[in-house]
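Try this one yourself first.
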């Protein structure tokens, strides 16, 4: 059942850093916005997280990981935490910004312990290449489905944006996201001129992040934060640890990345997020695939996007929030579709027998719902097939 790091590497289609260009990295920096923007706006508008807190946390984290890893390494919101918080489940009636900040601190401590104790690397030893590919495939399908759901309410713009994106990806990948965003903003300004006026009327200010430490003395905040953090752990292990390591080894095999290093990075940036009053963050395999598909090849991509968010948080958090809110659902749906499409095509590079296909597809199917549970199901199914307890 054990699979070494060498066994799990997927050396197909690596991207040489020598092919990097500034325009590719700048265009690729926008590739992950389909995942980032809905949560970013939702946290600010729905849950009341201070714009400066969340923009500083994401901006600083992107700059650091871009510098440390040297490749397009995306920083994303933790989706299970974000979905529960935005839906009001589990934490209804609570001080949402405080709950999210404390959940980030708890998450950070957990993943630092997992990294320094060797737990993350030890667990990864039991996960084969087929299970990892299944997780990545499932995450890609989940992003495509999420994109299609957003397109339902904005079919014409969404369908046109998807077609435009697929055309651009095959020709000038770095133009894909800039063109989609330009079209989206033009349509958004035409549909909602009041948002354009609100953007013009937003005053310029130099706000400070809104720290949440004083609210941590409330027992209800602790209960809600722990429930959110625990629910996220399996998904983080599947996507932000196993998924990002697998995708990095496939696309950039020269980068020294293992599960412990990914867990350590996740822990450190969540301590930063919680300290600034921001929600939990993680890495994402889908974001890396999308950035690379759109032309990114080096750490300049996350550094560029992080710098925009950092400066926006320090100088124009209100303007940046209004500008992001202007993007229509069809544009965001197309961005998610591109991210999912880019992720799924990376899992079809090798031949498999019937049992391996069963493990891959079953893991993928469950991972559409929850990547952590998908890992568990895939490992159990593979063990059962190899021991002949299960037969297909």
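Now uncover the answer:
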């Amino acid at each position: 059942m054990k699979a070494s790091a060498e066994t799990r590497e997927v050396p197909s289609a690596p991207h040489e850093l020598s092919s990097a260009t500034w325009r590719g990295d700048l265009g690729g920096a926008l590739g992950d916005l389909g995942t980032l923007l809905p949560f970013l706006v939702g946290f600010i508008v729905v849950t009341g997280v201070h714009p400066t807190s969340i923009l500083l946390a994401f901006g600083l984290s992107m700059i650091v990981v871009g510098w440390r890893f040297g490749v397009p390494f995306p920083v994303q919101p933790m989706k299970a935490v974000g979905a529960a918080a935005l839906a009001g489940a589990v934490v209804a009636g609570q001080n949402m910004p405080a709950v999210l900040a404390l959940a980030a601190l708890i998450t950070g401590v957990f993943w630092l312990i997992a990294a320094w104790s060797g737990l993350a690397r030890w667990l990864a030893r039991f996960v084969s290449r087929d299970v990892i590919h299944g997780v990545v495939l499932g995450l890609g399908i989940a992003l495509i489905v999420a994109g299609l759901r957003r397109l339902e309410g904005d079919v014409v713009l969404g369908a046109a944006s998807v077609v435009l994106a697929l055309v651009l990806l095959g020709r000038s990948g770095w133009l894909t996201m800039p063109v989609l965003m330009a079209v989206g903003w033009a349509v958004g300004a035409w549909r909602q001129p009041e948002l354009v006026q609100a953007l013009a009327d937003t005053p310029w200010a130099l706000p400070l992040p809104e720290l949440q430490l004083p609210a941590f003395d409330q027992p209800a905040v602790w209960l809600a934060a722990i429930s959110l953090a625990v629910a996220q752990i399996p998904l983080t292990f599947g996507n932000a640890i196993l998924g990002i390591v697998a995708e990095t080894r496939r696309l950039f095999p020269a980068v020294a990345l293992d599960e412990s290093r990914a867990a350590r990075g996740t822990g450190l940036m969540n301590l930063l997020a919680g300290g600034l009053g921001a929600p939990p963050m993680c890495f994402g395999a889908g974001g890396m695939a999308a950035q690379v598909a759109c032309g990114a090849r080096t750490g300049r991509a996350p550094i560029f996007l992080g710098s925009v968010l950092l400066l926006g948080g320090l100088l124009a958090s209100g303007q940046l929030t209004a500008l992001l809110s202007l993007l229509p659902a069809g544009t965001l749906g197309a961005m998610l579709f591109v991210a999912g499409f880019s992720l799924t095509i990376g899992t079809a590079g090798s031949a498999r027998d019937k049992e391996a296909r069963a493990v891959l597809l079953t893991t993928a199917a469950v991972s559409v719902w929850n990547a952590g549970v998908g890992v568990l199901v895939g490992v159990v199914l593979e063990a059962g097939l190899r021991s002949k307890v299960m037969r297909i």
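Discussion: The first strand starts at residue 75 and ends at 77. The chain has a mean pLDDT of 83.
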